[in-house]
């Protein structure tokens, strides 16, 4: 029980931080050391948790407290202070091992809003459940200008935030803004585009439109975009020359991306998924010369060949930096974009093709990808048949690749030159 309950708390309290790490935000705030300290503290209190769980069968008060603790850790907002997150965790862990009620826990979470002296210490706020959320929302809007050093703001589902206060533009040090899991927020106030230190923005499924003014967020490094737009506007995202990671996910109405993607001069990772009405990709996607990872999937109408030029004589292979390419669940794609794959001949290391049943053959250029180490083909009946070891028609094109995994190939062997 000790490990299970400690893991449950770790998942709840550190899950948010884990998302930072996954999205490469840790470096922006120097959170690695804080995470390590939190993990150490969780292990230190595990013995107390275990003792409480062993006693809960004989003590209803302890059992109720443990249930409340689980709920509180799952839907609390976390406060980061000057010395990192350990101060707030010290206060929180002070409740461990004593018979405290839920009101005591919630009062602790609300503490920074009770004393004006605490405002200057707050670095991060996560508004979560319907119990803490409404109280904190009211106090947050009232005292917004006092959060002069706030760096991270996250609005979860159930936080009862339906719009950002206009004064949010006063949070000049804000670096991370996340309402990915709050579908109630539909638009951004104009003042938000004054946040020139903002490095990460994550929008939710109810978000209606990302306006052109996003180009004024000159420090933006990470953008997770869910929008109801049919087309991304020109002179918007394409102007974010320092953007490094772009996720375009769950945009059911989106038919076309912006054509000026060549302006993303620092983009390293691009992921597009769950855009069922996306018809085509802009040809400018081949101009992303810094791109290292490209993943696109679950786009039922997308034909990858739309990025190819009709007159191939005018196309020169671009010097791309692609290391990883993943195509997943693209039923409308009947061929792989050869011009696109010509560029990373000296960089591509992993190529994964999944659930693309209508791709008919491997392009000739695959033989020029001398750095390619891993090729995976699954749920692509036509392509898999042609890429069978030794017997497939396309086997000569791919036999130089050290590791190949293809459906219905049970040999399990690795190939080499």
TrEMBL record:
A Pfam entry, by short name: Rx_N
Organism: Populus tomentosa
Keywords (A to Z) from UniProt: ATP-binding, Nucleotide-binding, Plant defense, Repeat
Lineage of producing organism: Eukaryota, Viridiplantae, Streptophyta, Embryophyta, Tracheophyta
GO biological process, one term: defense response
Molecular-function GO terms, alphabetical: ATP binding
Record-annotated Disease resistance R13L4/SHOC-2-like LRR domain positions: 142-233
Protein name: Rx N-terminal domain-containing protein
Residue ranges of every copy of the Disease resistance N-terminal domain listed in the record: 11-73
InterPro entries in the cross-refs: LRR_R13L4/SHOC2-like (IPR055414), Rx_N (IPR041118)
Keyword ATP-binding: yes
């Amino acid at each position: 029980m000790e490990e299970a309950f400690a893991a449950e708390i770790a998942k709840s309290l550190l899950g948010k931080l884990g998302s930072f790490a996954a999205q490469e935000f840790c470096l922006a705030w120097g959170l690695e050391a804080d995470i390590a300290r939190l993990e150490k503290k969780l292990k230190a209190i595990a013995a107390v948790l275990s003792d409480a769980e062993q006693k809960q069968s004989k003590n209803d008060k302890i059992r109720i407290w443990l249930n409340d603790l689980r709920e509180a850790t799952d839907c609390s907002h976390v406060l980061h202070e000057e010395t990192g997150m350990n101060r707030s965790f010290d206060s929180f862990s002070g409740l461990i091992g004593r018979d405290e009620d839920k009101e005591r826990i919630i009062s602790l979470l609300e503490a920074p809003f009770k004393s004006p002296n605490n405002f200057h210490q707050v670095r991060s706020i996560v508004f979560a459940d319907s119990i803490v959320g409404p109280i904190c929302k009211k106090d947050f809007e009232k005292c917004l200008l006092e959060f002069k050093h706030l760096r991270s703001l996250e609005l979860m589902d159930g936080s009862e935030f339906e719009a950002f206060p206009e004064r949010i533009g006063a949070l000049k040090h804000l670096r991370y803004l996340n309402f990915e899991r709050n579908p109630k927020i539909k638009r951004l106030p104009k003042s938000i585009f004054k946040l020139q230190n903002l490095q990460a923005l994550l929008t939710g499924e109810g978000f209606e439109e990302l306006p052109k003014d996003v180009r004024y967020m000159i420090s933006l490094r990470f953008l997770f975009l869910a929008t109801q737009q049919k087309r991304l506007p020109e002179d918007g995202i394409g102007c974010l020359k320092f953007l490094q990671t772009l996720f375009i996910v769950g945009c059911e109405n989106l038919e076309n991306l912006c054509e000026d993607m060549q302006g993303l001069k620092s983009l390293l990772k691009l992921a597009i998924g769950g855009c069922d009405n996306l018809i085509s990709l802009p040809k400018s996607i081949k101009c992303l010369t810094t791109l290292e990872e490209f993943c696109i999937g679950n786009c039922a109408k997308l034909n990858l060949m739309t990025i190819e030029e009709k007159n191939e004589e005018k196309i020169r292979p671009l010097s791309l930096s692609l290391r990883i390419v993943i195509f997943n669940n693209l039923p409308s794609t009947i061929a792989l974009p050869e011009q696109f794959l010509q560029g990373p001949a000296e960089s591509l290391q992993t190529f994964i093709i999944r659930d693309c049943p209508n791709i008919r053959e491997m392009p000739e250029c695959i033989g020029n990808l001398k750095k390619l180490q891993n090729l995976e083909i699954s749920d692509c009946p036509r392509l898999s048949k042609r890429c069978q070891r030794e017997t497939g028609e396309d086997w000569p094109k791919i036999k130089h690749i050290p590791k190949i995994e293809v459906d219905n190939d049970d040999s399990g062997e690795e190939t080499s030159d």
